[in-house]
Design a protein that fits this description.
Blueprint lengths: L6 E2 L13 E3 L4 E5 L9 E3 L4 E4 L1 H5 L9 E3 L6 E3 L12 E3 L4 E4 L13 E3 L4 E4 L13 E3 L4 E5 L3 H5 L5 E3 L4 E5 L12 E3 L4 E4 L9 H4 L5 H16 L4 H5 L8 E5 L2 E5 L8 E3 L4 E2 L15 E3 L6 E2 L19 E3 L4 E5 L19 E3 L13 H13 L1 H31 L1 H21 L1
Parallel strand pairs: 1-3, 2-4, 3-5, 4-6, 6-8, 7-9, 8-10, 9-11, 10-12, 11-13, 12-14, 13-15, 14-16, 15-17, 16-20, 17-21, 20-22, 22-24, 23-25, 25-26
Antiparallel strand pairs: 18-19
Length: 440
């Protein structure tokens, strides 16, 4: 019944739902509380409505929960998250993004041990991530971006959630250093910790991010990793759900130059790291150069120093993804020469701007020992354009010479060589001078 103009509240009735149905009521104008009987569905999609209360729906113990997928994104949910998630402990997908939820993430969310996707993006949640979430070891996507969460990034994320493909914690108040345990995330494709208050250096163990080190991407294997456990675990109790798992689409966001880009399942080959807008210091570790499959790397707006490691030239731009060869090292304290050759030639000057002691061709700034930059550039242009440009300039100079010769002798030649013309010309000049003097 999705995509209609249905309004009002859904009646709370005592109804037993057989066969664990799929219920799609999204994109309507339903409001009020969600009736508890809907928790019997195997897949419940209520996004893009005006629901405002989540308590009675989750915390009614009289109803046996079959729920495996719950999408309540883009509603008007207010207040704190209920602390009774143990009653829906068979959840695989949970999306509560784009609501007005506040308070801490409840500890009972750690009872969702089968959970694979947790999306709490764009709410007003605060406090630290509860340690009970480390029980959710099957998670392949965690998105808690655009909240007010604080505290350190827990080391148990890397230790207990090693199946993660997408980790987005952008736009919070996380502080402290980057734990080396994040290097255990061998399947990670998208790591976004930007716009926080993280400090100290970038771990040198990044080369252990195996998925980002591989240039070849097996999209089928990735999607199989995401959905295999659904078919395996829920085939018998959820026949209909297992055959319709593809109704849930994973969404990845990537910030670039202030613009939020969205990518869905087909673009899971996007391999990106975004650590921008933090307080990171020290040098850029050369180990980043081992991440040969990286498509987007954003380290801008930090306090990174030292030279750009030449090993970063190994980073490649995948030709099957248009316009995604992205590197942003701007607004740091980097110094020295931008590495020459290899992949650095494809990056524009804005990727390096705001580094006072950085030099190179991309910034039109010569480095010590380069000599006169002007004398270097002209031979390059001549060499690149070849004989075609030589013929063009030769013809241009010849036409300029002929034009000057014709104009000069066409006007002054008769005056100098023919006496009557010379006499009339001098009379014209005398009259012109007299007229100007009288006028003045």
């Amino acid at each position: 019944m999705s995509y209609n103009n249905l309004i009002g509240a859904i009646p709370s009735i005592s109804l037993k739902l057989l066969h664990k149905p799929l219920i799609f009521l999204h994109s309507n104008q339903f409001e009020g509380e969600i009736p508890p009987f809907l928790v019997q569905a195997s897949k419940l999609k209520l996004s893009k409505n005006n629901f405002s209360n989540l308590f009675s729906f989750l915390c009614d113990q009289r109803t046996y929960a079959n729920l495996a997928s719950l999408d309540l994104s883009n509603n008007q949910m207010k207040g704190k998250l209920p602390n009774c998630w143990k009653y829906v402990d068979r959840l695989l997908f949970l999306d509560l993004s784009n609501n007005k939820l506040s308070g801490n993430i409840p500890v009972s969310m750690g009872s969702l041990v089968k959970l694979e996707v947790l999306v709490l993006r764009n709410n007003n949640l605060m406090g630290e991530l509860p340690s009970t979430l480390k029980n959710c070891s099957n998670l392949i996507m965690v998105d808690v971006s655009k909240n007010m969460l604080s505290g350190p990034i827990p080391s148990w994320i890397g230790e207990s959630m090693q199946q993660l493909i997408i980790l987005n914690m952008r736009g919070n108040h996380f502080s402290g250093h980057l734990p080396v345990n994040l290097c255990y995330l061998k399947h990670i494709h998208s790591l976004d910790l930007s716009r926080n208050y993280l400090s100290r250096g970038i771990p040198t163990c990044l080369k252990n991010l195996t998925a980002m080190s591989e240039k070849i991407i097996n999209r089928g294997a990735i999607l199989n990793q995401i959905y295999w456990s659904i078919n395996l675990t829920y085939h018998e109790p959820y026949h209909s759900f297992a055959s319709n798992y593809d109704n849930y689409t994973l969404k990845i966001t990537c910030m670039w130059k202030g613009v939020e880009l969205w990518f869905l399942d087909p673009e899971l080959q996007l391999k990106s790291i975004d650590l921008s807008s933090n307080n990171l210091t020290c040098e850029i570790p050369k180990e980043i150069g081992y991440l040969a499959g990286l498509v987007s790397l954003n380290l801008s707006r930090n306090y990174l120093s030292g030279e750009i490691p030449s090993e970063m030239g190994n980073l490649s731009s995948l030709s099957q993804i248009d316009d995604l060869g992205k590197l942003d090292l701007s607004r740091n304290s980097l110094s020295g020469r931008i590495p020459r050759g290899r992949h650095f030639e494809t990056f524009e000057g804005y990727s390096f701007e705001g580094n006072r002691d950085l030099c190179g061709e991309q910034l039109n700034k010569s480095c010590p020992g380069d000599g006169d930059q002007t004398t270097v550039k002209f031979p390059e242009v001549e060499t690149i354009n070849g004989d075609e440009d030589s013929v063009f300039y030769e013809a241009l100079y010849m036409s300029m010479g002929i034009g000057f010769f014709t104009g000069f002798w066409g006007l002054l030649g008769p005056i100098l060589l023919w006496h009557p013309w010379r006499k009339h010309y001098m009379r014209f000049v005398n009259r012109l001078i007299n007229y100007i003097c009288e006028w003045l």
